[in-house]
Amino acid sequence: MQYEQAQSMSVVYNLGLATRVPLGEGRTFTVGERTVAVFRTRSGALLATQAECPHQRGPLADGLLGGNVLVCPLHGYKFDIKTGLAVGHACGSLKTYTVELSDREEILLRVEDS
Ligand code: FES
């Protein structure tokens, strides 16, 4: 993992080539002191959320992804990983992160300092 750029209140991490995350799946990355789940939808969009489910800390990167809706692998709660909002339950929302593709097809994840 490479430290790419620092600005006033955020850090951009280069997580490597986008192919590290297969289409329609997620992978967990550690950036600084936090873990983040990065997803690539079947259409190729990159999205990122907190790594653990707010219900009972299920590993969200292992969930089933259909469009932007992720199903947690432990108990099936659904989340819109683009907005972070819970879908059909009141368990709470996910923290989302800004993620984009570089000119070299690398995943660039922005993490706000907090
Ligand atoms: S841990 Fe995710 S739904 Fe229970």
From TrEMBL:
Keyword Iron-sulfur: yes
SUPFAM superfamilies: ISP domain
Origin species: Cystobacter fuscus
Any one Pfam family match given in the protein's UniProt record, by short name: Rieske
Gene Ontology MF term list: 2 iron, 2 sulfur cluster binding; metal ion binding
Phylogenetic lineage: Bacteria, Pseudomonadati, Myxococcota, Myxococcia, Myxococcales
Domain Rieske, residue spans: 13-108
Keywords per UniProt: 2Fe-2S, Iron, Iron-sulfur, Metal-binding
Record bears the keyword Zinc-finger: no
Annotated protein name in UniProt: Rieske domain-containing protein
